[in-house]
């Protein structure tokens, strides 16, 4: 039993370490993913009501280096966080989050050529950028739906009860907001900037909710590392010697 207990304690430390890494990564990614809030301080020339956030890092925009750095940072933190926690439950959802981070990186590497809201002759449909943006949304909603579903069916894992309660409503709200941004792609521009920025806030809220689930759920697992080693003995029935005290031998 001594070796099992020592291994369980080591595993508990590893869970705590991975939990801190994942929680910090998700919080940082949520903040960087909403770097568009700097529009209030940085002279972008864009009207937030009628422009896509991706116009901030369009190929011909002076703000491209700044907002590209934020996007790369957010994607890197997402991938790091998802890989650190992928084996702790809800595996496919974390792999989808890795895909989300990778697609976000591709989205920045294949930007719009110009900012459609500033240049009337600029086409809002940039083929490669449109494809990468579609992949971003596919992986995002796949991760949201899977992890929200997983959390709803594992309420015993501490903070995952909260993730299960609010995950699906947040997924629905983020999806509706995303659908409301397609006007320019259908040659009906105007006011698409508002729902897109709401969408990004919903995604940031989702990442913070995930961070809470990991923090609280990881604390529960790390606090009870011995359960996995004692459960097989207990399931096997009463194996204590007759007349024993009912406690495991030392």
TrEMBL record:
The keyword Protease does not apply. Keywords: Membrane, Transmembrane, Transmembrane helix. InterPro entries: DUF998 (IPR009339). The keyword Transmembrane helix applies. It comes from the Bacteria. The chain crosses the membrane at residues 21-38, 66-85, 92-110, 130-151, 163-186, 198-217. This is DUF998 domain-containing protein. It comes from Streptomyces finlayi.
């Amino acid at each position: 039993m001594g070796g099992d207990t020592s291994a369980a304690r080591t595993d508990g430390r590893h869970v705590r370490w991975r939990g801190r890494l994942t929680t910090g990564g998700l919080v940082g990614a949520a903040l960087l993913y909403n770097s568009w809030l700097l529009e209030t301080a940085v002279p972008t020339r864009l009207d937030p009501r009628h422009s896509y956030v991706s116009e901030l890092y369009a190929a011909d925009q002076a703000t491209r280096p700044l907002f590209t750095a934020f996007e790369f940072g957010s994607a890197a933190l997402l991938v790091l966080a998802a890989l650190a926690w992928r084996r702790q439950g809800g595996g496919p959802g974390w792999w989808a989050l890795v895909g989300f981070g990778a697609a976000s990186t591709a989205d920045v590497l294949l930007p719009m050529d110009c900012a459609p809201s500033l240049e009337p002759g600029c086409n809002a449909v940039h083929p490669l950028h449109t494809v990468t943006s579609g992949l971003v949304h596919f992986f995002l909603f796949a991760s949201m739906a899977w992890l929200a579903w997983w959390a709803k069916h594992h309420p015993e894992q501490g903070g995952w009860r909260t993730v299960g309660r609010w995950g699906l409503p947040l997924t629905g709200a983020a999806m509706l907001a995303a659908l409301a941004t397609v006007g320019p792609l259908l040659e009906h521009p105007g006011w698409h900037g508002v729902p897109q920025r709401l969408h990004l806030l919903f995604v940031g809220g989702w990442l913070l909710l995930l961070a809470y689930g990991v923090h609280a759920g990881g604390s529960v697992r790390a606090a009870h590392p011995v359960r996995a080693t004692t459960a097989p003995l207990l399931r096997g029935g009463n194996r204590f010697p007759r007349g024993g005290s009912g406690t495991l031998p030392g």
